[in-house]
Amino acid sequence: MAAYGLIEAGGTKFVLGIADADCTIRATHRIPTTTPDETIGTAVDWFKAQGEPLTAIGIGSFGPLQLDRSASNWGHITRTPKPHWANTDLVTPFAERLSCPVAIETDVNAAALAEAKWGAGVNCNSLLYLTIGTGIGGGFVSGGRLLHGLSHPEMGHVRMPRHPDDTEFKGSCPFHGDCLEGLASGPAIIARWGRSLSELEAGHPGQAIIAWYLAQAIVTFQAVMEPERIVLGGGVTGTKGLLDLVRTEAKAASAGYFAGDPEKVIVAPGLGERSGLLGALAVALSSTS
Question: Per the confidence metrics, is the pTM higher than 0.90?
Answer without folding.
Answer: yes
